Amino acid sequence: MQPDTYFDTPERSSSEEIIDDFLLFKVNPLISEILEGFPEFVVILNKNRQIVAFNSKAYNAFRVREPEQILGKRIGEALNCIHANLLPGGCGTATFCKECGAAKAIKYTSEFHQKIEDECKITSLINEKEFAHEFSVFTQPINFKNNYYTLFSVKDISSEKRKDALERIFFHDILNTSGAINGLAQLLNKENEEDEKEKLIHSLLISSEQLLNEILLQQEIRHAEEGNLQVNIKEVKVNEILLAAFDLYQNHELATDKNFTAAFLDEDVSIKTDKVLVVRSLGNLIKNALEATINNDEVRIYSFVTEDTVYLNVYNSQLIPENVQLQLFQRSFSTKQKKGRGIGLYSVKLIIEQNLRGKVSFVSDKQLGTVFTIELPRN
């Protein structure tokens, strides 16, 4: 039997209580001036985390025209968070809420009557399209008319996080790949043996392709977020996709001392999709799997097909901790604990689900390991 909550209380105040609190703050000119004085959107929450007051900037953030549309809602519900309605108790009760910075800050302030600041990643579903947000949230306890409330303010730091990610990628990943290309070019310039030259040229081509893929990925993410990613649908064989993704990393330094293999379909089938986008997305899953494994561990890519769907899978033997599982696919979240990382899985979900009509999922088990799956319609 499913519990009522995995994190915070599911109880809600009645409509009458919500209106009473709303009028209590509305008729107080000092409270109204304070709320309007904030440079970002701010709300006041009652004891059950429901919105009872807000400033005018909240209208834009919540995409509403009338106060009745947000009164009584919780933050995740007002922002259309994809996890807000997973349980009947609403925002704050799902398993995902345990790792939500906003939910944790609100719970802390409510229980200990102390202010706190945290970061929060929220994915909103608007008009059947997902939007990723990164917020800095601040909570402050308020004792007003002998009742405790929580002041909740939000600053959008999405641009700052995106800048951090790009700096990290360009100054680390791309710099490393560029360094490898430069080193191979120098070796090629000094090499006299033809066989060795051919090997160096092959490695040089692979490294230069990786560099190009890393740059193009950032461009594709931006286009996908803006809704103008160019998708080139053509017929392609599934084994062709697997081989192209395998070639990206079979000679990569991440695959050194790893058991990296590919299993191809005995009876190959065709699929109508964008090969470049799928290969790049599958490559991201492979890269993550290789980074997660230790020496001699297995990383395997394979596929199976049904009448309507193709499943592209990336397996590795490591278990993903539950707190990490709850945050995967969020923009800027990273297991590497380094500033600016965490764009890979987010980009896979963004491109596959919003541009190729597919689905990205994973399962992680202590005995069986972890499998990430890209599902694509065959037509």
Q: Gist?
A:
The chain has 11 helices and 12 strands. The protein has 379 residues and is an alpha+beta fold. It is elongated, with a radius of gyration of 25 Å.
Outline the structure in words.
This protein has 379 residues and is an alpha+beta fold. 41% of the residues lie in helices and 23% in strands. It has helices at 15-26, 29-36, 57-62, 75-78, 101-112, 158-190, 194-226, 238-249, 275-292, 322-325, 344-355, and strands at 42-45, 51-54, 116-126, 129-144, 147-156, 234-237, 259-262, 270-273, 298-305, 309-316, 359-365, 369-377. Strand 9 (298-305) and strand 10 form a beta hairpin. The longest helix is centred in the middle third of the chain and has 33 residues, at 158-190. It is elongated.
Feature tags:
11 helices, 5-stranded antiparallel sheet, alpha+beta, elongated, Heat Shock Protein 90, 23% strand
Helix content range: 40-55%
Highest CATH level, the class of the largest domain: Alpha Beta
CATH topology category name of the largest domain: Heat Shock Protein 90
Q: In total, how many domains does the architecture comprise? A: 2
Order of helices and strands: HHEEHHHEEEHHEHEEHEEHHEE
* Oligomeric status: single chain
Largest sheet: 5 strands, antiparallel
Contiguous low-pLDDT stretches (5 residues minimum) are 337-342
Q: Roughly what is the average pLDDT, rounded to an integer?
A: 89
Measured between the Cα atoms of the first and last residue, the distance is 39 Å
Supply the number of helical segments.
11
Which CATH architecture of the largest domain?
Answer: 2-Layer Sandwich
Radius of gyration: 25 Å
CATH homologous superfamily descriptor of the largest domain: Histidine kinase-like ATPase, C-terminal domain
